[in-house]
Amino acid sequence: MSQPSVILATASYDHTIRFWEAKSGRCYRTIQYPDSQVNRLEITPDKRYLAAAGNPNIRLFDVNSNSPHPVSSYESHTNNVMAVGFQCDGNWMYSGSEDGTVKIWDLRTATCQREYESRAAVNTVVLHPNQKELISGDQNGNIRVWDLAANSCSCELVPEVDTAVRSLTVMWDGSMVVAANNHGTCYVWRLLKGTQTMTYFEPLHKLQAHNGYILKCLLSPEFCDPNRYLATAASDHTVKIWNVDGFTLEKTLTGMQTFITVAQCFIRYNCKTLVDVHRRNRQGLPRSSQSNNLLCSS
């Protein structure tokens, strides 16, 4: 099966993973996922494999195959896996779970190589562009930096006590990190580089982005420069695009009749494109597109 230029995948509470043609909206492949709901989707850097994070396992599927079976499974977490991602060369995978751990996996052997204790349910994990540090956010409001070379936590901060950190995003050049929380607030720090890795957070901005809790925040990728944006999606039924220069509001998508469960945003040049997924069917969309997770890669 030839791979489309844009890979669009969704995961739903109906225990399926679906692949779509982005232009036509046609579903061309469905994978049954009977284990649990899928909390997160992520694709490998070479676009060959799709990771589906569930409860409590992670399954890896071949993007270019019609096989309904995973090529490998990663089974060490004991609760919902809420975050999953890959090192830039695809040599290893990381994950974060409500069991309070952050883990690093060997993709070849499907074994856990390292485990870090967060002491609270982990909601979000991102890999710093330097590929040497993981940043995690948990239900108790803690943000921790895990130094992979030192194999320890090198930095810890709490933007709001007892306020869950729902989503983290790092600028492509490692200059900025944003943390979104349960109160609809985004905390922005400038990342100051140390001798080898970044461990210093300089407060830059506090943005009251939404009236409800934020589910996803995402900074624009490298090809958008010199324009830089932050996209946020929240339980107040809005999706917003912010200009990082001054954090002014560029656009608000409203009129959502249903609860937005997740948004994966991609922004091309000066044209902002947002794909938002709803728990219930919106008029004009195929019923099979009802999803709680979405991944778009081009």
CATH architecture of the largest domain: 7 Propeller
* Average pLDDT over all residues: 85
The coarse overall form would be globular
Beta strands, count: 26
CATH topology-level name of the largest domain:
Methylamine Dehydrogenase, Chain H
**What summary fits the major beta sheet?**
4 strands, antiparallel
Strand order of the largest sheet: 3-2-1-26
Q: What order do the SSEs take from the amino end to the carboxyl end, as H and E?
A: EEEEEEEEEEEEEEEEEEEEEEEEEE
Tell me the β content. over 45%
WD repeats: 1-30, 74-115, 115-148, 207-252
GO biological process, one term: regulation of actin cytoskeleton organization
Keywords: Endosome, Repeat, WD repeat
Family: Belongs to the WD repeat LST8 family.
Overview in brief:
By secondary structure, the chain is an all-beta fold.
Describe this structure in words.
The protein has 2 domains: about 1-115, Methylamine Dehydrogenase, Chain H (7 Propeller); about 120-255, Methylamine Dehydrogenase, Chain H, CATH 2.130.10.10. It contains no helices and 26 strands. The chain has strands at about 5-10, 15-20, 25-30, 40-45, 50-55, 60, 70-75, 80-85, 90-95, 100-105, 110-115, 120-125, 135-140, 145, 150-155, 165-170, 175-180, 185-195, 200-210, 215-220, 230-235, 240-245, 250-255, 260-270, 270-280, 295. It has a 4-stranded antiparallel β-sheet, with no helix packed on it. Strands 4-5-6-7 form a 4-stranded antiparallel β-sheet, with no helix packed on it. Residues about 255-270 and about 275-290 have low confidence and may be disordered.
